[in-house]
Amino acid sequence: MKSFQVIAVVAIGWLASHTAPVAWSQEASTGPGLFENSFDTSSPAVAPPWSMRPWLWEDDVNTAAAIWDLVDGCRDHDLPLGAILIDSPWSTRYNNFRFDEKRYPNPRQMIDSLHARDVRLVLWMTNFINTPESLADAPGDEEDLYTIGKSKGYFVNDGAPIKWWKGSGAMIDYTNPAAVEWWHRIMDRTLSLGVDGWKMDGSAETLALTQRKSQRGTLTMRDYLDLYYRDTLHYSRACQADFATMVRSVDIYNTHSDQAHAPLDAAPLTWVGDQRHSWKDKGLDEAVRSAFRALALEYPSVSSDSGGYQSPSKPAQGMPRLLYLRWSQWNALTPFFLIGGHDEHRPWKFDAEFFQIFRRYMWLHQELVPFFYSQQMQASLREGKLMHLGPGKHEFLLGDALLVGVMTDDQPRREITFPDGDWLDYWNNGVHYQGGTTAMVDVLEDRSPVFVRRGSIIPLDVSNDAVQHGSDASKGWRTLDIYPAAHSSTAVLWDTQKFPSMAFRDRSFATVIPSATGLDIQLEEGPVRDTIFRIWTAQSPRQVRVDKCLLDQQNSRAEWDKLPSGWWYDAADQRLWIRVSGVWDTRVTIEN
């Protein structure tokens, strides 16, 4: 992680010298041919499904033992885990892409072992090469990449050293093809080991401290940000197709700017900077301010360090319990659930009640991955949105299905303004709200403000009963969580097993059609999938058909769980459960 204190002071002066002080996106490009790889910049970047599962990391110990403590802790406490992030220092020099094997012995074996546990590895990086004497907290080695790069003209500003939060060094000149080729060969040292992603820290903004000279002439800030983020994503994906980058979207406090950092087409996953473990004082308040500015700039996926990155004082005061819970409940309802930083973040180190709430939200996030991914794919086609602003203060929508309110203080109530439509409390579907109204809602510790629009069809990946969306018997099946409305509704479902893919065979369509006698559900196209239908309805049906075949009714959940097909009705929960194996171009008819 880093501090932008020096950068911010100079950047203010640099920004003030322009007619559009903070509008990086409005600056002129240096001319045709800047992006020689002809990147597609027309659509938002797409994150692979694995990267939408929960991430864990720590920034106090920074060793292989600390990594395995997190991985084994999730296993031992039945928590889902998609990725481990290693921040700096992990290499022998910053951005030489050689593991410090005193901290991380046998890195290839470590990565292979993580993959065997279905956990991906993401590493910190920037665009800087330090001078030989500038090591900061890196151990150092004999290789002098700075002198090599400077002698060959591979850095901006002719390699003139500039101070940054990890010492003093020079920035790669992405307009120089030879420099980029050299830089890629250095990155290959780690990419060849099978690493799955980069945490691209926001060092490119340091260009504001310099004369901004490159092989192509003077660069604007927007030019260099675009080059840094685009080249890193596209080259890494050329090496591994489902590679992910986490990038800065907006970071108001650290940069004194509310403008975009990474371009949307090179921002698969974004986060908003290094906040404190605090409600105010550059804590949750600052994360929310930056995140909602990022949503206003139409970033499709925006998140933050759950609970904050660091303590507001030294020695660390520790993580305030309710703050950590509320912050994590917010991030769990975004496509990027990032858990970690300085001080204790491991949920199993808190009290039992806290842990059970946290566990439920981690599993809720895990279950929502097919929904997040499907919405993201539609957003990339300009046929929908993933995250976008809601009508009320500190509210956002996920697609058109879910409305989330962020809890920004320790009070147990907050106001919610509802968009058009009929809305149900996600935790208690018996509570209804009408679109266009505002209500004061009670918010217990274990239930953050989440609401589902009637007419929604939400694909889930359920493998246990942690969220009460299914059971162990749901594992391996696609669950469609359905909230019928008085009108027909359709959802596009993308296959999370295929990435990257824009082939239409990898998406299917689910349509719910109300009728005078019940409900029809039509599934069309896409891959064959075993499917569970979880349908909110106040009435038990008279019969259920799949195409022309009657399904057998079961008297209990336990009986139903054992069968490849059938249905049962849970009167207490007002939920109809239907199980159908091998679904493809299938019609389910529910007759009341």
TL;DR?
This protein is α/β, with parallel strands linked by helices.
Word description of this protein:
- This protein folds into 3 domains: 5-271, Alpha-Beta Barrel (TIM Barrel); 395-453, Golgi alpha-mannosidase II (Immunoglobulin-like, Sandwich), CATH 2.60.40; 462-591, Immunoglobulin-like (Sandwich), CATH 2.60.40.1180.
- With 592 residues, the chain is an alpha/beta fold.
- Strand 19 and strand 20 (432-434) form a beta hairpin.
- The chain is built from 12 helices and 33 strands.
Fill in the CATH topology of the largest domain. Answer: TIM Barrel
How big is the Rg? 25 Å
* Total count of domains: 3
Which CATH top level class of the largest domain fits?
A: Alpha Beta
Strand-pairing-aware structural class: alpha/beta
For the secondary structure, the number of strands is 33
Beta-strand share of residues: 15-25%
Distance between the termini: 58 Å
Q: Show unreliable segments.
A: 2-36
**Mean model confidence by pLDDT:** 92
The CATH homology group name of the largest domain: Glycosidases
* Main sheet characteristics: 9 strands, parallel
Name the helicity range.
10-25%
Shape: elongated
Q: Identify the CATH architecture of the largest domain.
A: Alpha-Beta Barrel
Question: How many helix segments?
Answer: 12
Write out the strand line-up for the largest beta sheet, numbering strands in chain order: 12-11-10-7-3-2-1-14-13
